[in-house]
Amino acid sequence: MIDLNDIISTTEFNPLIYWIIALMAIPLLSFFTTTFLKKIAPIWGTLLLGVNLSISIYLASQYWDTTGVSIRGNWFSIGDTQLTYSFLIDQLALIMLVVVNFISVLVHFFSMEYMRHDENKPRYFGLLGLFTFSMLGIILFYDLLFIFIFWELVGLSSFLLIGFWFEKKSASLAANKAFIMNRIGDLGFITGLMILYSQFQTFDLEGIKSLTVLSSIEDGNWVAEYFKNGELVRNGLDGRWLSAAGIALFCGAVGKSAQFPLQVWLPDAMEGPTPVSALIHAATMVAAGVFMIARIFVILDAQALEVVAVVGAITAFMAAVAAFSQFDIKKVLAYSTISQLGYMVLAMGVGAYTAGLFHLVTHAMFKAGLFLSAGTIIHQLHQLEDKDINFDPQDMRVMGGLRKYMPVTFICFLICALALAGLPGFSGFLSKDAILLNTAVWIDEKGGGFYFIEVLAFATVLITAFYTFRMIFLVFTGDFRLPKLIPANTTLKPLQEGNIFLQLPMILLAIGSLSVIFGFTMKAENTWFYSLIQDPIFLVPESYAAFNLMDLPHEWFENLHFRVLAISIALALSGVVIAYFLFRPGAKFSASFVEQREPIGVIAQISFYHWYQNALYEKIILKFILWKVKRIAWFDRVILDGFINFIAKFQVVFAHLIAWFDRNIIDGFVHLTTYTTGRVGQLTRSVQSGNVQAYIMAALAFLILMLIWLLF
Amino acid sequence: MIENLLTYIIFTPLLGALVVLLLPQSKTSSFKWVALVALGVTLVLSVLAVTSFDATVEGLTNSEEQLQLVDKAEWFSVELGSLGKFSVDYFVGVDGLNLSLLLLAAIVLFIGAISSFGIKQKQKGYFGLYLLLSTSVLGCFVALDFFLFYLFFEFMLLPMYFLIGIWGGPKREYAAIKFFLYTLVGSILILIVMIGLYNSVYDPVKTGLEAGVIENVSEASPDMISSIQYAVQAGQMESENIVKSFNMISMADDANYLPDSFLGKNSYGEIFGQSARWIAFLALLIGFAIKLPAFPFHTWLPDAHVEAPTAVSVVLAGILLKIGGYGIIRTAFSFFPDSAFHYSWLIGFFGLFSILYGAMNALAQKDLKRLIAYSSVSHMGFVLLGLAAMTVEGVTGAIYQMFSHGLISSMLFLLVGVLYDRTHDRGIENYGGLASKMPKFTILITIAFFASLGLPGFSGFIAELMVFIGAFKSSTVIGAIPYWMPVVATLGLVLGAGYYLWTLQRMFFGKFWVKDKAWRETLVDLNAREYVMLVPLVILIIWFGIYPATLLDLINNSVEGFTQLLILSVE
User: Fold this and answer.
1) Of A597, B46, B351, B364, which has the fewest beta carbons less than 10 angstroms from its beta carbon?
2) Pair B292, B350: CB distance under 8 Å
3) Structure confidence at residue B12 as a pLDDT band (50, 70, 90)
4) Phi and psi dihedrals of A288, rounded to 5?
5) Which residues form the NADH-Ubiquinone oxidoreductase (complex I) chain 5 N-terminal domain (chain A) (predicted)?
6) Would you call the peptide bond into A275 cis, given omega within 30 degrees of 0 as the criterion?
């Protein structure tokens, strides 16, 4: 039988560790140094990340064909339990490394222009470094505890970046919301860690996976049997804890990847600078949840995976609905991000590991592209503001016709949008198609009530295309609406295209959103991505394991593929058509459209307020908690402390009573005694008067009494 | 390696106190330097003690062999005729259970001395009392004779009472007397048990000497000791030869309880129909839980903190609370492991309740110092939960939590002190947007808040993680507390994030605004002295968060010895 200590033993020295250290140290260096480099901070930060990107590409080229290199060492021990750290450089890590560093560099570069006039830009670039450092930690470490550590640090950097403009109250509130929602999810993550640790006494993923394979279900108990330091260990938990572990860890992903019901933080997170939204809240951090699910994928059991799939589908649909009535361009993109993350999570839930990760990568590109394009628009519109002209540069209703002013931005935005809508020729099509196909096959096998997942997944395709093109029509076609909205006596500066700093990242990301990047094909499985990453096999005990998609007959996929393809393209196109009819260049908007605070109509309102989820949280749950804590504080102050004070006062009163008793009763008794004695003394003294006659009288009386007593 | 190192550590501050007393009142400015030097020497000696500690020594908590740096001498003894004799030792030593707390105490006392430089009135009395407090705190952590321990424990009250009562805030008298009475109630419970224990426990070595079985202490080999113990248990030892003892190490060994004694393991001693051992355990537990403090014995803490001057708050939160946790480990759990197991559910529950209750109270506070005081209640709940788990991870976590909370809460109270020095106001609602006015202060308080809410990378995270995994594992390994307790306890993390982030948002973010216009001038960023006390704490908090082996390697064996003792009693 396997000894745990052999699995998690320290590996031999491998020079790769230097590269890993460098990858993490460089962004950290950026964090620590930019504060001191006032003017050159942007260039310095960008350069450092450039170095990191080069290292990532170098490593990718070196280790592309290997099966994964792991490096492990000891961290600390508790009693006889050794806790370790470990890195795994496999294809997944390499792809993520390149993607994260690539987008990080582009965002740094973009920010050099975007943040040019912000006096706090050293802090900004430092925080971008901190974020990149934490994100790389999640990718490189192959140990759940370390993933959790960097997971939380990612949460911290996100908190600091959302609240970057902390003087705005809404920004710091949004930062708090993001951190706390993530924390709620992390309770699950910690619970998952507790369950796995109590079974396996290690957080090392290699160790957990190896021991999960060996674990078994006996009489409904999940039993793990292995040697540790040469002694047999036999840990048992109720079998339900196996599912619970998976679901609990998934809760972490629900927080970080903004899934239902914790997704409310992501739209608010748009308070941060737009490049930050592109990097953190679209491409990388929010994808960390999906990446984490991928890392623990094989130890998820059937029940946990069902939960994952259902949550993913619900999230995808709800957020897509929320996106179609927003006025704020970043809000649309935020809801769209949630929706796409829902797709990735759904993919994981149905067991389509590779498809989910593929969508993660394509989405990272096109969504970062969309955010940076939107950032360019916002930045350029912001230039038009002055003391007389005030407007919200993120509101799509002030835009319109921007195609003429900003053609490059338009083309980049359009390419990324087509990828988002999932139209052939663009990367999003390949990955979304793969997810839909796998979902369809999974549901055919699963049957039963799971059909609603399929319905939600396909409905989302339609809505996605609709809101994407609503955005394009509102922003880029028709007439520029802003000049009509400003006071009559003011004149507007001309709107210009962004400069090279803004354009270059957009262009690169737009290129990355073309499907040719991944191969000349209409099928995801023919791309190079699929040749690198395959679906793994579940390792949990058989009675709990989900079926592997790859075990299903290949014809099922073949048969369904065309249908799925046709339906999804048809849905996407109809979404575009509906958007065209409602928001086409010549469409008449009602006069109030540009001024109203919220859209009209029940469905539009449900969409605008995201199913009133925020209202539920803020108006009811949060209020209830604040009311409750006030009651508890009242209890503490008035009842508990009051009780103590009462006892103290009672003591004092009691002491006074005792004192009174002492003074009046005890002392009184003593006084009485002395008084009585005194009186008696006086009485007897009066007898001893020294008068002989009296003595004789007394003696006589006594004699007579004696005689009487003797005689009778 | 210095002989009698621990004795020097304990009494150096006392020497300092004497110097302060002897210096004329006119040399006002020298008192603080005397205190600083005395505590600096103590700190250096404590670090020396830690570095000379041999981490490879193994042994159960009830064996004297595993102790290190021992100083032991008979203090006094009393002949009781046919009842034998009782003896009290001057007995100090360290093992993994108190080593980290000794170090913590030395660090916090030193930093507290720096922060006391701001004290302007009655400096002679202040520094004299502060040094006196230092001696009793340090003594409390290393004393291994219950009598000696109790002496130090009680003696702490005196300087503390005056430090709060004279140099405190507006309601200082109320707070001081509340603190005093609360602790005194705890002390009485402890005293009662101490008397019961002394009636039940004998010292095998001294009994051997008295009976003439051995000639001197060096002959007391483990075999010899166990044969003496056997003789006593079998009733073969003359009762006038039996030497009763306050030795805390002996008290943790069942073989050292007299046969049929009141608190012996197999005795029939009963109080109200309950085993006397259970009652004695509860009395010790409550006695120290007041100090910890755990719900419902915590209400003295917010008042004492709010009224105490900064340095005293720092010592109070940083060290004094830990004496509660340490006392539970060293006395209640060590002496009565079987009772500890019997009540583990209850202890775990009160730990859990303190975590949530403290955090919810913190969420409702309007005074920054009260908020931090309640967060201490919450964090000390982890200590109880970890101990109740009775697993290596849980106990290690509890000790680590005490160490880590000592550093983090010291930093938090120092930071509140920084603000209070400038405005004499701690109302959360009286400030806004301090980040733009005091950026460096904001950075440090953000670090402290995140450290306290358990962000990885800081020491608190490691401690809480160990408590969680230890508590969850408990059910599988020993069955002390159920699975749901640690799972529910994780809610404390969200509440912690809630009150800290809300405070950050209200006080530090947003537009700069203060209630009183005059504060605009007085609110200046950190000065050099404040950096000197805060930056080392930041470094320590991060160091122990990233490389916990520094401490854990030293205490692992002792903690294993301790949990082994607990497990043996259950089997």
Assistant:
1) A597
2) no
3) very high
4) -60, -35
5) 75-125
6) no
Total Cβ atoms within 10 A of residue A708: 9
Tell me if residue B145 falls in helix, strand or coil: strand
Chain mean pLDDT for chain A: 90
Whether residues A592 and A680 share a domain: the answer is no
Establish whether the linkage from the previous residue to B293 is cis, with ω within 30° of 0.
yes
Prior bond of A261 cis (ω within 30°) = yes
* Per-residue tokens: A153: 């640090």
The pLDDT of residue A128: 94
Indicate the residue among A574, A608, A642 that finishes a domain: A608
Q: Which of residues 289-318 of B touch A (CB under 8 A)?
A: 296, 299
At A125-155, the pLDDT tens digits run 999 999 999 999 999 999 999 999 999 999 9
**Token digits for B417?**
């002190």
In degrees and rounded to multiples of 5, residue A86 shows phi and psi of: -150, 150
Does residue A121 sit within a domain? no
| Cα B404 to Cα A66: distance, rounded to the nearest angstrom | 43
Q: What is the pTM of this model?
A: 0.93
Tell me whether B469 touches chain A (CB under 8 Å). Answer: yes
Above pLDDT 70, what percent of chain B? 98
What is the average pLDDT across B444-468? 95
Same domain, A536 and A625: no
> How many separate domains does chain A show?
2
pLDDT band at A689 (very low <50, low <70, confident <90, very high): low
CA distance A38 to chain B (A): 16
The answer to whether A237 contacts chain B (CB < 8 Å) is: yes
**pLDDT above 80: residue A543:** yes
Q: Which residues contact A380 (CB under 8 A, 6 or more apart)?
A: A405, A406, A495, A496, A497, A498
**Nearest residue of B to residue A153 by CA position?**
B456
> Are A197 and B457 within 8 A, CB to CB?
no
- With a CB cutoff of 8 Å and minimum separation 6, the contacts of A675 are none
Q: How far apart are CA B438 and CA B508, in angstroms?
A: 9
A685 exposed, middle or buried (CB, 10 Å; 0-12, 13-18, 19+)? exposed
Query: For residue A658, with 0-12 CB atoms within 10 Å meaning exposed, 13-18 middle and 19 or more buried, which class applies?
Result: exposed
* In the predicted structure, residue A565 carries a pLDDT above the cut 80: yes
Which of A581, A608, A635 is at the close of a domain?
A608
- Please state, in angstroms and rounded to a whole number, the distance separating the CA atoms of residues A192 and A249: 5
* A131 falls within a domain: no
Contact (Cβ atoms closer than 8 angstroms) between residue B537 and residue B304: no
Among B533, B522, B454, B518, which residue's Cα sits nearest to residue B489? B454
CB contact under 8 A, B493 and A187: yes
- The mean per-residue pLDDT over the stretch A376-395 comes to 88
Contact B487 A191 (CB under 8 A): yes
Q: How is A658-670 classified by DSSP, letter by letter? A: HHHIIIIIIHHHH
Q: Which B positions 169-228 lie with beta carbon below 8 A of chain A?
A: 178, 181-182
Laid out side by side, the sheet with A216-218 consists of A216-218, A221-228, A231-238
Residue range of the domain that includes A632:
616-711
- ipTM of the complex in this document: 0.93
Chain CA centroid to CA B389, Å: 19
Using CB atoms, pick whichever of A172, A235, A648 lies closest to residue B510. Answer: A172
Distance from the A671 Cα atom to the nearest Cα atom in chain B, whole angstroms: 36
> What are the angstrom distances between the C-alpha of A298 and each of A212, A536, A537, A539?
9, 7, 6, 5
Sign of CA dihedral B360, B364, B368, B373: negative
Residue A590 tokens read as 């009602």
Tell me whether residue A145 is in a domain. Answer: no
Residue appearing with tokens 């009793």 = B136
Q: In this structure, are A602 and A624 located in the same domain?
A: no
The β-bridge relationship of strands B270-271 and B274-275 is: antiparallel
